[in-house]
């Protein structure tokens, strides 16, 4: 920190904002402050500056279609001060004074999701389609294999050719040349945002920083022939996905830092102490996801700051201006006079707003008593994300609302476990539900504390059981309104896409043949597995690789018109696929010819993967059951020196053991269930029903070693 850092409280609120929709205009003089321009989902572009701590409007446009992206442009090597917004399938251009000079209706059939501007070149992406325009004339087109989340182009003045880079949902960066794919660069998670390193692509102009939806950050060099990964930072602290990145020298050391905004509201500053990997120097938690981040000088000349815009439209500044001053005696730090008056005026403003709200509420209550009154349903925006976490094989459901959440009711028609989330302060209560007539397996209510706008839940599903999870979101607004959001729990819900698999493992094969089209079998795979693009792939056939996040087993699926081949080292995966695909084909009255090749060695291989997890969970359960008795002994005897070291260590680690056990409810039951399914599935393919032997298997599992378990499977 240079002078200590304070949070600026002078910035206004706009409407709900999408990712990358706030920028700082270049300063007009050497010492001048910068103007802020932001586009929201009401279609309004707001531009303002700050004078004496108060926002001063420059211009504001009329409402329209949602603004999906906002970028700055201009002729190459001149100040980038023209404002471009993507709204629907149209791109509009405005001068820094707010005068519209461009309205370009593209030929895209879908809404624009990502945009990049470089001189006269405009790069646009819808869900799967990339288009390049030069002076608004169509130049190049590319159809991506999966959804495109972001786009940028390497600086033309440095690399001397147009090199667009697409961040795609299937964990790759696609590098293009004209309308063709030059190559793919694999990244460790689904990339959500791209930025040029240092704001200019580094010395070579080829360096691109990416952020992923599972919170990883990396730098990759995009050369003319192949990608060269430079560094990668994992997400050890289990923070949110990355939504925005900027480069700015906020520490004043002559080297630009990396500014990162995440979807859990964490803002981070990384600096390059050594020339290699960046180091986290500073972080700050906001209460909402950070949609855009910029570094610049906004509030006061000579003091740089980091500006962030959040999902519901709040703009927050972190400034290098000292907000404290020492009193004359050299004693404690006190708030500066300017900051005290700022806080005082904010308090007054807040009191006025509270009075206004009370008056309007009373007026509403009185008018609602009238027999002619019509109550209109207030619209509110919900930002949701349902993703599988590789680390603990659980699903995160994140719900973010533009206003405070009152409660969220979660209902599921399949058996799922709700897991604890540290960041979650809501009170959860469970209701009993009938699983038989209504297929209702879970009914839980989360009651949120005041001013909670973001709620994170964690659930773990069981493979083979599929259906729908529903979240009923009720915000604190009048009249009471609720929105329902649905999330599919797929048959192979714990599988995640991966770039490659180990082909040396013992594999079981399932082969389907029949009168089905490529689109039909693709729709069945989409129904069965997560992370498969809904759009039917181009070409005649496709191969996808998956890994089971709970067990580490793998799946290879290759299919084309009239034929599908699925290989896995886990018989249960093949069994689930066989049942579900047969069911889907029967629904469409398609006759399938199903054949399978079972590898006996694969059962032993899968048991070897499961058994260490089983042993660990059994030991954990035994330790947890001993804690109360050991604590009672400790109270009675006064000390525990007489205990064996293994029992003393249980007492010392009691809190961590209880915490871990609480965090993973039903983990042991899940493993027992998987072993039981494996046992039944092994013999199902042989045409034998062994369900009567399941009780004996469960008895054997208690305290059984790996060899004993394998022997039981083989003897049966």
Automatic annotation (TrEMBL):
One of its GO terms (cellular component) is ciliary basal body. Residues 495-597 form the BBS7 platform domain. The keyword Secreted does not apply. One of its GO terms (biological process) is non-motile cilium assembly. SUPFAM superfamilies: WD40 repeat-like. Residues 378-487 form the BBS7 GAE domain. It comes from the Eukaryota. Residues 336-363 form a coiled coil. Residues 600-713 form the BBS7 helical hairpin domain. The keyword Coiled coil applies. Pfam families: BBS7_GAE (PF23360), BBS7_hp (PF23349), BBS7_pf (PF23361), Beta-prop_BBS7 (PF23743). This is BBS7 protein. It comes from Ardeotis kori. The gene is Bbs7.
């Amino acid at each position: 920190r240079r002078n200590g850092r304070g949070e600026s409280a002078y910035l206004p609120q706009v409407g709900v904002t999408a990712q990358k929709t706030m920028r700082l205009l270049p300063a007009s003089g050497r010492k001048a402050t910068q103007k802020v321009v932001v586009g929201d989902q009401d279609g309004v572009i707001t531009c303002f500056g700050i004078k004496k701590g108060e926002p001063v409007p420059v211009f504001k446009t009329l409402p329209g279609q949602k603004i999906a992206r906002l970028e700055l442009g201009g002729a190459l090597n001149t100040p980038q001060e023209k404002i471009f917004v993507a709204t629907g399938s149209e791109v509009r251009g405005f001068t820094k004074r707010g005068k519209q000079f461009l309205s370009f209706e593209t030929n895209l059939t879908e809404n624009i999701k990502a945009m990049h501007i470089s001189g006269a070149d405009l790069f646009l992406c819808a869900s799967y389609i990339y288009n390049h325009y030069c002076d608004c004339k169509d130049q190049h087109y590319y159809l991506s294999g999966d959804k495109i989340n972001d786009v940028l182009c390497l600086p033309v003045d440095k690399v001397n050719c147009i090199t667009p880079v697409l961040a795609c949902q299937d964990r790759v960066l696609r590098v293009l040349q004209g309308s063709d794919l030059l190559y793919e660069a694999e990244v460790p998670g689904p990339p959500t945002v791209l930025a040029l390193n240092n704001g200019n692509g580094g010395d070579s102009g080829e360096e691109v920083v990416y952020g992923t939806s599972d919170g990883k950050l990396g730098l990759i060099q995009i050369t003319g022939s192949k990608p060269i990964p430079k560094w990668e930072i994992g997400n050890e602290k289990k923070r949110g996905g990355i939504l925005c990145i900027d480069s700015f020298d906020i520490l004043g050391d002559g080297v630009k830092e990396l500014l990162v905004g995440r979807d859990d509201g964490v803002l981070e500053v990384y600096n390059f102490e050594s020339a290699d990997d960046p180091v986290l120097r500073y972080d700050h938690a906001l209460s909402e996801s950070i949609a855009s981040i910029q570094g610049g000088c906004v509030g006061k000349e000579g003091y740089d700051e980091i500006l962030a815009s959040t999902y519901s439209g709040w703009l927050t500044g972190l400034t290098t201006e000292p907000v404290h001053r020492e009193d004359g005696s050299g004693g404690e730090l006190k708030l500066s006079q300017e900051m005290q008056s700022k806080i005082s005026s904010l308090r007054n403003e807040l009191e006025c707003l509270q009075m206004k709200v009370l008056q309007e509420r009373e007026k509403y209550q009185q008018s609602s008593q009238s027999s002619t009154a019509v109550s209109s349903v207030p619209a509110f925006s919900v930002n949701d994300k349902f993703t599988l976490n590789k680390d603990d094989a659980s699903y995160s459901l994140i719900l973010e609302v533009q206003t405070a959440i009152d409660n969220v009711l979660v209902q599921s028609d399949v058996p799922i476990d709700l897991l604890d989330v540290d960041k979650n302060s809501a009170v959860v209560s469970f209701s009993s539900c009938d699983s038989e007539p209504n297929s209702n397996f879970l009914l839980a209510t989360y009651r949120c504390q005041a001013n909670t706008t973001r709620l994170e839940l964690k659930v773990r599903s069981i493979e083979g059981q599929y259906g729908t999870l529903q979240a009923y979101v009720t915000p604190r607004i009048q009249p009471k309104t609720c929105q329902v959001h649905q999330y599919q729990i797929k048959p192979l819900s714990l599988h995640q896409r991966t770039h490659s698999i180990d082909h040396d493992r013992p594999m079981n094969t399932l082969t389907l043949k029949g009168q089905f089209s490529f689109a039909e079998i693709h729709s069945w795979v989409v129904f069965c597995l997560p992370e498969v693009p809904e759009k039917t792939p181009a070409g005649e056939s496709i191969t996808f690789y998956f890994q089971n996040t709970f067990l580490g087993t793998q799946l290879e699926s290759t299919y084309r018109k009239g034929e599908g081949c699925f290989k896995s080292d886990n018989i249960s995966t093949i069994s689930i696929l066989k049942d579900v695909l047969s069911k889907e084909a029967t629904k469409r009255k398609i006759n399938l010819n199903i054949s399978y090749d079972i590898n006996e060695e694969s059962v032993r291989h899968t048991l070897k993967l499961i058994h260490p997890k089983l042993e660990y969970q059994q030991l954990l359960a035994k330790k947890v059951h001993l804690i109360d008795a050991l604590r009672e002994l400790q109270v009675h005897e006064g000390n525990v020196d007489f205990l064996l070291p293994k029992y003393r260590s249980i007492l010392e680690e009691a809190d961590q053991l209880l915490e871990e056990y609480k965090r993973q409810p039903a983990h042991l039951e899940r493993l027992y269930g998987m072993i039981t399914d494996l046992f039944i599935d092994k013999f199902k393919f042989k045409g034998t029903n062994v369900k009567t032997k399941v009780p004996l298997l469960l008895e054997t599992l208690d305290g059984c070693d790996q060899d004993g378990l394998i022997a039981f499977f083989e003897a049966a």
